[in-house]
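Table S2 (text version). Query chain:
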Amino acid sequence: MIHLRGTRGPLGIAAVVTDLDRTLTDRRLRVHAATLFTLRKLRRRGVRLVLATGRSLREFRSRRALLHTFDAFILEGGGLVGPRAALRPTKRRTGTFEAFKSWLREQNLQHRSGETCISVARSQGHRLQKFPHLEGLQVTPNHDRIDITLRGVHKGSGLRALRAGIVGRGNVLAFGDGENDVALFKAADYRVAVANAVPSLQAEADETTDEYGGSGVRAFLENRLLGGSS
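Corresponding structure-token output:
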């Protein structure tokens, strides 16, 4: 556990959970080697690392460095959680979810589909209202996309599912930038929005970094955590 410096009282951080795109990355969605190096230093000091993203596992085939940096994952917007080799769904798929997938195909509405999450362009969001059972699903804006998961499934529920096992009982520090990170912040103990975060997330944050994305995350970890290990 490492103590977070600069807070009113001592706050021991046992785990760091971070969003990926525009939080851990730069503007071109690249994760810099220096950022991964800082994360691995934290891991060597006993802090558990969790990556929380709307992406599916197959999207990481060309990003093996990320897979080997984190202890656990919250994927598909909270639909899949656990270590890479033991990912499990947080909720069983329902008939409504399967019907929605079929409806998207019938409507010829372009979408990306994972095991437990569907993503459509935000510009097409108005068309989703035509699905007759939309209230049975979780609909979450995410920058230029909209993520659709099972009702009650989001990054926050994913973090709570990991608390007892991977994360443990210590405090969790969370980083994020988008609307789909609001639920994650509500489940964390200390919340840091990156400088480019949307206003709704900054409103939920304890602090905001001075720099964009991964540069801000790295500076925060180096200045506030890695100088205060216990």
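Notes on Table S2: The mean pLDDT is 93. Residues 95-150 form one domain.
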